[in-house]
Every structure is written in structure tokens, then in C-alpha cells.
Amino acid sequence: MSLSLDATQLDRYSRHIIMDEVGPDGQARLLDASVLVVGAGGLGSPVIQYLAAAGVGHLGIVDDDVVERSNLQRQVVHGDDDVGTPKVESAAAFVRRLNPDVDVDGYETRLTKENVELVADYDVVVDASDNFPTRYLVNDFCRIHDIPVAHGAIYKFEGQATTLVPDGPCYRCLFPEAPEPGTVPDCATTGVLGVLPGTLGCIQATEAVKLALDAGDPLVGRLLFYDAMDMTFETVPYRQNPDCLVCGDDPIDSVADVEYTDACTVSSD
Ligand SMILES: [Zn+2]
To answer: Which residues form the THIF-type NAD/FAD binding fold domain (predicted)?
Structure first.
């Protein structure tokens, strides 16, 4: 790793650099890393904030939504003035204001089979999406292309997180198929405690930084459950499934023939 931290960077990242577990080499590694954040909403907001602050040198952000006032209760990367602005624009502006070291690329689109190749340019992916088609597409594409994923999901007062690496079990090993369309409510219809995605997103950001540093023990083969009401964390181990579509004994080598359908209830209002 070539080391070229300037005086401003030595100052900005001094609390990283003084730790043996990061040090100047680790910080240089973060500045050299590229992380794609899929979703600039409740989970994506804290992920984007902390990865930008940590000096992850290249951040990609994928989102096809515009900021709505009802988002602001939890999507803390956006402000009242951003209502009506594409979320990728608002999030990129936040990153540029926080840390000029970070190159940020916004993709104002929904991730689909047709554009998923853009993911291949990144070292690490954070799945901060809010729907099953994107979740399975990210899992499948990243597994085929050996890209680690920090996964997170939330529901009302509860959340879950796990980390998917090329030699560990994948999201489909845990949940082989998405639930039937219409059986799972989404945030718009059920509500979510505003601070909940903050907690989960911070866990995902922690995992992404560890993956970029190649440090610590990521949440591999472990599903972390968080219950905000009981204030409990529980970790459940899970294994690779030999029948898994993408990491089992007879894995697919392309997402082209997989169907990614939306299982979320569509909000009526
Ligand atoms: Zn699998």
C-alpha cells in the first residue's frame, strides 16, 4: 500500500491513525477503497455519513427516489430544503460538504438486471435497500462476482444484519426465496421508528469499514437481530445451503435467467 497522507489527512483521520488496528496504512487503504451503497434512505443515510467521515475514498450511491417530507423522520442525510430533489443528489451534496477526500458517484436509478454491472466496479457493497428484488439481485450478483455485502433490513421496531463474503453462506442460504408478493408490508404502510435504521445502518457501516480494512470478525454466517423495544441483540448462526441457487453445489453463473419480482405491498395512498 503506497502511503501518501497529507497534513490535512493526518489531522482529519488522527483518531484512526493512532490505533494500531487502523494506523496510517489502514487509513490509506480506506482512502483507496470503493464502496457502493444501495439505497439512500433510512439505512443508507447513516452508512453514507459514516463511510464519508471515515474517508472511504470512493462512494457510489444508487437510488431512484426523490426526497419526500415524510422521509425526514429517519433519512438523516437529507434536509427540509431537499424535498423534491433526487436522493442521490442530496446525499452526494452531504458527502462533499463533510469530506472533500471522497469521490462520490450517484446513480439515479433502481438497480435491475439490466444495470447491475455497475456494482462490479466496487470493492464492497452495502445493501441498504428496502425491497426483496433488490436484495436478492445484490446477493446473487455479488456472490457470482466475489464482492462482499453488508446486509441490513428493518421492520417497525426490529432490524437484522448479516455480512455476506465470497467463502461464507449467502442471503439465499438464509432465505432461499422472497416471500410471495403482497405478503410483506413495506415501510410506507407499516411505519418505522425513526432511529431504528440509524442503529442498523451504523452496524452496516461498521461492517463495510472492517471489510475495507480486512480487520476483525465480520458478521459472516451469523444473523444479528435487534429489538429496539426490548433493547436486545441476538445472534443466530446459519450455514451454507448445498442447494443454494448461487453458492450451492450447482451454482448459477449469471443473474440473466433469475426473476426478481416485487414482494412488497404497494401503498394505497
Ligand atoms: Zn447461498
So the answer is: 13-245
